[in-house]
Design a protein that fits this description.
about 15% strand, elongated, about 900 residues, 6-stranded parallel β-sheet, 8-stranded mixed β-sheet
């Protein structure tokens, strides 16, 4: 620092340290001789500090039952006596005057949210990030989620995002896999900072800091003195210039300061400390001296708390801990519950910062009354968290200080890393002890879809998002009556209007539309998250992005090249009959009317011989009480134009026979399926030709290789007979490619090989896996799609087709509804399989010579597939291409 820095900060008291006088450079994991400075003497072991809590030493003293002890690399504070923090004289003018308590926005939100079995203690985690530039909020949230739990949490976590874009105009270009390492580069600095740096020399930290401080202070002498004192406090205690030798600055030794020397080469120590100090100065200047910026920072956190969904765990890093502390201490504990508050790498221990904040709290810094337990974690090599112990400085509350050399997992190169702190044993243990084992599962109940969570994280709070709010109970086998659905929709509409008007808006701003099964609305982040907290009261089954509900089948028909084959070759499925063995078909759906696709149906779930149901009102039209079969059938055949968009099956003119082999719960058994297979076989035999050329079975089950040979179960045997009769059989590979495995270290999410089910493991069939609907080369095989090989070592699936979020015919459509309500999206290999059935029906309609030769058709199909570059046991031959098959 420049020669005048020490004088401007005032005369400092020396520090008396018990221990060796000779300085020692600590190494990660080494705590010998490491001391912590504090305003008052440390209490002896077993005594009580002024905060009212037992003095914390290594060992179980004061720990909550059920929380494991820290690992060996975590050391609690060292004993220090007779110490005083350095401070500057108090100028007459205060930075910001004392402020009254804060009020959460009145939204009617509740402490409630969907929870997984095993979740406890808290429903939502709220993060408050630290200093410097950051990637966009959704990426930063993903980084923190992954560091803490190893998976993305979706609507179970929120990021209070407050980056000053005047300093950092563009977000960092980072991914979820990167870490929140906290660094600063000159080329991303603000205009004032650039002007300051332009006049300095990069080789001189003194000059760089001086110019930066002057630019930030903007002529205010009080602010300049305080910023200089903060910079001196951090920089001199983190970097010993005398280590470089020859003319170094020995002021730290002269002042008797205990230096925390980073175990890095001198030039790296200088770089790390310089970057962190400058980043802190920029942001702490905004927080301490700029009322508008400070209010914006605190509003970022207040908005995330006002939406409800508590109790909350609040996790704050770096300057985020100042923001979180100042907000939480001013909240009414009767209106918010925070069972755990975690601060990491906090500068709150700096005397200079406390001197400025204390007048805001009317002279006394106290633990927030809404917080049950406060864990403060600090790496002793972290320059920002110079004083690792807050319990002596914050009055009252259950405050636990945990510190050690190198405990940040990114230390020593990045000792202030946010994600490095989140991966520490202390943070993970404390958080998981509150939220419970079920909280962080990758597959867990949610109210807000993950893609919508991403949207609202990355947008401004006032931005509105197109959403579809799904009404609970609108599912088979007991769908809610239309009258009840209308009442539910009215309640949701009323609440949305209340939220909009409370924020000064008008009903029209939300653009509310009550559809048959959804409420469409344009909502802000606060409104979306408030509805999450009211999901049970309002019977909300999910809040989805509106845009995701349209035109997905119109995309997948191009993905497999069915559309150009339909138009260019006339391969449209005419005079080809396909059997759909499923939950039945809603035959009167408008999708099937143009070409009269559904010829007949049979209900194989009833006792006795199935009876043929011919076209007409009654059972024939309403056989499907579940929806799965109608959706599958609509992917194979049928066509409907709505508002200029054509929703078409792969073979729009193909004819369908429906066989109900699954009940309205979607359950069935081998006997019901075999009934259908018998009818198909008899129909073909009695006609002396193939009346039904193909079968689609978007169903399956588990397989025990110890009971049956692979591909030789009773059902497989019946299917093999039909294949040999000349009938093409398309089967779903299964959705068992993804599972949550329980281990001694907790649950692990995994993709599973050898997960092909029965009857998809039959050789004499075409087993279909799933890929992304429009970008299969980019996103590849769906995470849920079952993978080979089979239990006896054969390659399966045979190929893959679009199976994610496929839009097709909806079984419970109603006359007079809005056009797109005729369709609904579903995902799974059940949706991929009818794509292949439709392709083959279209192919046979133009290449009729291959009817009755399923082996030859299968070879043509697989030879024409497009290789996606994935493992053959995941993708099979690849993605089908109808144009190549016809060429």
């Amino acid at each position: 620092m420049s020669e005048g820095n020490g004088d401007s900060a005032g005369k400092r008291k020396s520090i008396k340290v018990i221990g060796k006088k000779k300085k020692k450079i600590p190494q990660p994991g080494d705590t010998t001789g490491v001391k912590s400075a504090s305003r008052q003497a440390r209490a002896p072991q077993g005594s009580t500090t002024k905060g009212g809590s037992p003095s914390r030493q290594s060992g179980p003293t004061g720990r909550r039952k059920g929380v494991p002890e820290p690992s060996d690399d975590i050391t609690l504070h060292a004993e220090v006596i007779g110490t005083n923090k350095r401070r500057i004289p108090q100028p007459g003018a205060q930075s910001i005057a004392a402020e009254p308590g804060l009020e959460l926005r009145s939204t009617g939100a509740r402490n409630a949210a969907p929870g997984a079995t095993g979740a406890q203690g808290a429903n939502t985690i709220v993060y408050v990030h630290g200093i410097g530039n950051k990637p966009k909020a959704s990426v930063l949230k993903c980084q923190w989620d992954t560091a803490l739990f190893g998976t993305q949490l979706g609507d179970r976590s929120r990021m209070a995002y407050w980056v000053n874009r005047d300093f950092y105009p563009a977000p960092l270009d980072a991914t979820c896999a990167a870490g929140d390492l906290v660094s600063i580069e000159d080329d991303e600095a603000s205009t004032p900072a650039i002007m300051a740096l332009a006049r300095g020399e990069h080789a001189s930290d003194d000059r760089v800091f001086e110019r930066e401080i002057q630019a930030l202070a903007n002529g205010n002498a009080d602010r300049e003195a305080r910023l200089r004192a903060i910079a001196t406090e951090i920089y001199e205690r983190s970097y010993d210039a005398s280590e470089e030798g020859g003319g170094g600055d020995h002021r730290s030794a002269a002042l008797g300061l205990t230096t925390k020397v980073l175990p890095l080469p001198a030039f790296l120590r200088r770089q790390v400390t310089s970057q962190l100090t400058r980043a802190l100065l920029r942001d702490v200047n905004d927080f301490l001296f700029d009322t508008t910026r400070r209010e914006a920072m605190e509003r970022a956190l207040l908005d995330r708390l006002s939406a409800g969904g508590g109790p909350f765990v609040v996790i704050a890093h770096s300057q985020g801990s100042l923001i979180a502390y100042d907000v939480l201490r001013r909240l009414d504990s009767s209106k918010i519950e925070v069972p755990l508050f975690v601060t990491m790498g906090s500068p709150l221990g700096l005397a200079e910062i406390q001197d400025i904040m204390r007048p805001w709290a009317r002279g006394r810094l106290e633990a927030p009354s809404c917080v049950g337990r406060w864990i403060n974690v600090a790496d002793r090599l972290d320059p920002v968290s110079f004083d690792v112990r807050l319990r002596d400085d914050i009055q009252g509350g259950d405050i636990v200080d945990i510190s050690g050399i190198g405990i940040n997992t990114d230390s020593p190169r990045h000792p202030h890393s946010g994600t490095g702190y989140l991966r520490t044993y202390a943070v993970r243990t404390e958080v998981r002890s509150i939220v419970g084992a079920g909280f962080h599962q990758a597959i867990a109940p949610f109210a807000i879809a993950k893609d919508l969570v991403t949207d609202i994280e990355d947008s401004l709070p006032q931005n509105r998002h197109a959403t579809l709010i799904q009404l609970a109970g609108d599912k088979a086998p007991d769908p809610t009556s239309p009258k009840v659905l209308r009442l539910l929709a009215a309640d949701i509409e009323k609440k949305i209007v209340e939220l909009v008007e409370a924020d000064g808006g008008r009903r029209e701003d939300a653009a509310i539309e009550k559809l048959s099964h959804f409420v469409s609305a344009r909502l802000t982040r606060l409104e979306v998250e408030t509805l999450r907290s009211l999901y049970a009261d309002l019977r909300i089954d999910g809040i989805w992005r509106n845009a995701a509900k349209r035109a997905l089948i119109t995309d997948s028909i191009h993905t497999v090249q069915a559309a150009p084959a339909n138009l260019g070759y006339g391969a449209d499925g005419r005079k080809i009959c396909w059997a759909v063995l499923d939950t039945g078909i809603r035959a009167d759906h408008p999708h099937f009317q143009k070409h009269g696709n559904v010829l007949a149906q049979w209900d194989c779930t009833k006792f006795g011989s199935p009876k043929r149901l011919s076209p007409g009102p009654g059972a024939f039209s309403s056989l499907d009480g579940h929806g799965h079969g109608t959706h599958v059938a609509g992917i194979i055949a049928g066509e409907l134009e709505i508002e200029g968009i054509t929703y078409s099956g792969m073979a729009p003119k193909a004819l369908l026979y429906g066989f109900k082999v699954l009940n309205d719960n979607g359950d069935g058994n081998d006997a019901w399926i075999i009934k259908a297979l018998d009818i198909i076989s008899q129909t073909n035999e009695e006609a002396g030709q193939l009346v039904i050329q193909g079968i689609n079975l978007s169903l399956g089950g588990t397989f025990d290789a110890s009971v049956f040979g692979c591909g030789h179960t009773p059902l497989c045997q019946e299917l093999r007979r039909l294949w040999r009769q000349g009938v093409i059989i398309c089967l779903a590979a299964g959705n068992e490619g993804y599972a949550v495995l329980a281990t001694s270290d907790g649950n692990i999410q995994a993709n599973l090989d050898l997960s092909i089910g029965d009857p998809a493991n039959l050789e004499e069939t075409i087993a279909v896996g799933s890929v992304h609907k429009t970008n299969p080369h980019t996103y590849g095989v769906s995470y849920f799609s079952s993978r080979g090989p089979t239990a006896d070592g054969r390659r399966k699936p045979d190929l893959v087709a679009p199976g994610e979020k496929i839009l097709s015919a909806r079984h419970d459509w109603q006359a007079g509804v809005v056009g797109h309500e005729f369709y609904v999206e579903m995902s799974g290999t059940s949706m991929a399989t009818p794509h292949v059935s439709g392709i083959l029906a279209a192919f046979l309609s133009l290449r009729r010579e291959f009817i009755s030769y399923p082996d030859r058709v299968k070879k043509i199909l697989l030879d024409a597939c497009v290789d996606l570059g994935r493992d053959p046991y995941a993708q099979g031959a690849g993605l089908p291409n109808l144009v190549k098959m016809l060429g």
